[in-house]
Amino acid sequence: MWLLLAALVMRSLLVAGDAQGYDPNVHYELTRFLAVSAGFKDVLAVSVARGDEGVDDDPRTSHWSSIESRELYHFVSSRRLADLREESVSSCDTHKISVYMHALEDSFSHEGFRPLLGHFPDPTPDWTWWDLPRAMQMAKIKFSELVDLGKWCSALPNQKPRNWKDIETTVHDFLQLHNDGRLP
Amino acid sequence: MRRQAAISALAIFSALILHHDSLAQGALAERASIFYNAWQTGDPKPIWDILSPDIKEYTDFDTYSINLKMFFGGTRLTGFRIRKVNESDKEATVDTDVVLVVVVPGEAERSDRAPHAIETIDRTRWVRRQAIWYLATKPRVLE
Q: Which one of A33, B44, B46, B64 has the fewest CB atoms closer than 10 angstroms to its CB?
């Protein structure tokens, strides 16, 4: 819980830079929280979260920057998503897990959009509170994937994963907030 | 050399496209032209001005324009023609022939990554608010 509360305080700072794809609150804070809840060691949870947010922050991979990056990381095909998952599972590498997590998250917010133009000029697909049921679906699947990764990659966890039911309300309360921390 | 030839061919093609008048007329076609002209010149302000007022209280121009400028850098519009307008009382779509030049940032000097042209049809969605057409955004989903 404290991680999420800290994230809420940080959210207004992070939004100053804004991001592409889901906002940093999803790619960094939510990822870190879910990874820790899935049993990941904190240092590895941070590594995955940083890598996840880094996909947006790096101009070479940002989804606004090119069609190629949109195809590879943000508007991926089901085949590409399956490949990223396989790479994560087979390598247990935190960077590969980060990229897979990012593509998985964006596959929810970007469903129905083509990589050619992304969702230009509409910013709302990246706002979790704009479509909260969809964002909750994303978080649940993402948590499930992190739990499974923890089972397959023995170096990642150092504790038993929590149950989704135990964290669902916290995740919901977090995702329903606007970037500036208020209820929209 | 190949890159120059490709860009020259693109320029000629774009000019041909631009030579033709819009196939659609009317207020909505004019609003759509504002959108594509702004994209072509890389100016986010006119796009912000015609963006649905439904979301204006949740974001601001500075935040919005950062992302648009990045987008313009990688996906340049070099020509367009409004092809078809489908409008009802409150909603509409506009189909537009567009010519895009795609750039991979930082790798444009590689021959296999040279800017290349894509011709496609872009569909924009519009909503009418107080008799004025605005670029639509995804409808909000409430629990």
A: B46
